[in-house]
Design brief:
Strand order of the largest sheet: 2-6-5-4-7
CATH class: Alpha Beta
Radius of gyration: 18 Å
Number of helices: 5
Strand content: 25-35%
Oligomer: single chain
Largest sheet: 5 strands, antiparallel
CATH superfamily: Cyclic phosphodiesterase
Length: about 240
């Protein structure tokens, strides 16, 4: 698959809100991490992944760059691909909270409820997931790689896994069918000017050339988190024996 060029990072309709999504909920306007507890199903980027060295080089470039005030970087230990979104304590509307739980129960009870279901959930062989790097997300809310499954058959299985998790957890996000797999490395703190977008896009496209096209992820993990800096694994999803 052809990777995106820098134009795709820029040519997107910008939201009318004052700040990028995430400011005021996940991070303050000056980049300090805020409490944002929830649970999720993710694949952490393995420490020995061939993707890691190139991303660490980019991390250093962004950390030392002139536009450092425009984004907050996520710790490399937190880098992951979300398989299924789960819930956050602050958002309990229909589509963001399970249909079989009252919206006012404590988050810990929801996490325990999910854990009981996921302990019995059959992963059906997706202990290893091959992914392709396809480009970068548009520079609207953050900096993140866009991903797709390496093989069409596995892309189909990955989408089917999301459907099965939705059914099991009785939770279906409004964007469920259009979800873009990605790996975030930073959140934007301000709307970018055209010049800032051009400069940052050039940096990202230069880094893209040094990244491997494909890499592997291990089995999805059920995790809980207090904020966007750490995702604590409770257990790996498993294939039924």
């Amino acid at each position: 698959m052809t990777r995106e060029n820098s134009t795709s990072l820029l040519d997107v309709e910008r939201p009318s809100r004052q700040y990028p999504r995430g400011v005021g909920t996940k991070f303050t306007a000056d980049g300090a991490v805020m409490p944002f507890p929830g649970n999720t199903i993710i694949c952490h980027l393995p420490g020995d992944s061939p993707l890691k060295p190139g991303l660490l080089d980019l991390y250093k470039t962004l950390e030392e760059g002139e536009h450092r005030h425009l984004y907050t970087l996520l710790p490399p230990e937190s880098w992951h691909m979300t398989v299924f979104e789960g819930v956050v304590d602050a958002k309990r509307e229909i589509g963001f909270w399970p249909d079989d739980l009252q919206p006012n129960i404590p988050l810990d009870e929801c996490t325990s409820h999910f854990a009981q279901k996921l302990d019995r959930f059959d992963l059906e062989g997706l202990e290893v997931i091959g992914m392709d790097v396809t480009g970068w997300l548009p520079l609207v809310d953050g900096i993140g790689l866009t991903l797709t499954s390496k093989q069409l058959a596995q892309e189909t299985e990955l989408r089917r896994l999301r459907d099965r998790l939705s059914d099991a957890l009785q939770l279906r996000n409004p964007e469920h069918d259009h979800y873009v797999f990605h790996l975030s490395i930073a959140y934007l703190l301000k709307k970018l000017t055209p010049a800032q977008s051009e400069a940052l896009a050039a940096t990202l496209q230069h880094a893209l050339a040094s990244l491997p096209s494909g890499f592997m992820l291990r089995a999805p993990e059920f995790c809980e988190f207090d904020d966007m800096f750490e995702f604590r694994r409770k257990f790996y999803l498993r294939t039924a024996v």
